[in-house]
Design a protein that fits this description.
With about 240 residues, the chain is an alpha/beta fold. The protein is about 35% helix and about 25% strand. The chain is built from seven helices and eight strands, in the order H-E-E-E-H-E-E-H-H-E-H-E-H-E-H. It has a six-stranded mixed β-sheet with strand order 4-5-3-6-7-8. Strands 1-2 form a two-stranded antiparallel sheet. A hairpin with a 4-residue loop joins strand 1 and strand 2. The chain starts with 13 loop residues before the first helix and ends with a helix.
């Protein structure tokens, strides 16, 4: 389970709140958005960078998920498919064991239509990706089965990306959802991947809940990337030992 490497509630501690002040705009009380050439100023803190490629069907919520993770809570509900390739940087500090590390998450997103139309987009997005983030909507009954089909295709890469699955438009107790708890349990048991859930918003005042879920999701993503790196290093050392 999650939380063995990264302290999932660290941002709410006194130490974490002090660091998080660098990530919020005091005028809007919301997270700062950092452009491709910007970064938070945190002296004496190690920074690591990872490339994440978000994949999913049109309308699954790839772009809105990235926006939510970047701290943009009021995401436009009108669907417009992403044209070409969109890259966004998300900076997020975490406590890995006893070290504070700044994660730079380079999020790549491309519209499903353009991926099918232009042959160069998919290879560029997949190239040296550290994680493939599979996004599906709880309102789409075929969402999980599509991911099960695509997992072997995207995971068969020499970079050995970490698989991460996020379900959007989730609402606990929503009996109109097309994907059931049994569907989730079966997927997690079969694929050995725990599904992360992004809650559905209805325009009510739920900022605190949304930020809590976002922080948890970012912490888990960072933990999975860190574990993937440690496993990669271990495998490289074992291969070197076998060669010798």
């Amino acid at each position: 389970m999650f939380g063995n490497v990264v302290k999932l509630d660290w941002q709410s501690t006194a130490e974490g709140e002090t660091i998080m002040q660098h990530f919020y705009n005091p005028q809007t009380n919301g997270r700062k958005f950092f452009g491709l050439l910007e970064r938070p100023i945190l002296p004496n803190i190690e920074e690591v960078s990872y490339k994440l490629f978000f994949v999913g069907k049109s309308g699954a919520g790839k772009s809105s998920t990235i926006a939510r993770l970047a701290g943009i809570l009021n995401v436009d509900v009108d669907y417009v498919e992403t044209r070409g390739i969109r890259k966004s940087n998300i900076y997020w500090p975490v406590k890995v064991w006893d070290r504070i590390i700044l994660f730079r998450l380079q999020c790549w997103d491309a519209g499903d239509r353009d991926i099918k139309k232009f042959g160069h987009i998919l290879p560029v997005c997949k190239e040296e990706a550290d994680a493939i983030v599979f996004v599906f909507s709880f309102t789409d009954p075929s969402g999980l089965s599509t991911i099960s089909t695509n997992l072997p295709i995207y995971m068969n890469d020499k970079s050995k990306p970490a698989p991460i699955v996020i379900g959007t438009k989730y609402c606990a107790g929503d009996f109109t959802a097309k994907i059931t708890i049994d569907d989730i349990d079966e997927f997690e048991k079969t694929q050995k991947i725990t599904i992360l859930k992004i809650n559905k918003t209805d325009g009510s005042n739920e900022t605190e809940i949304t930020e809590e879920i976002t922080a948890y999701t970012l912490n888990v993503i960072c933990e999975q990337l860190w574990i993937r790196d440690q496993n990669y290093i271990l495998n490289q050392e074992m291969e070197s030992f076998q060669i010798i």
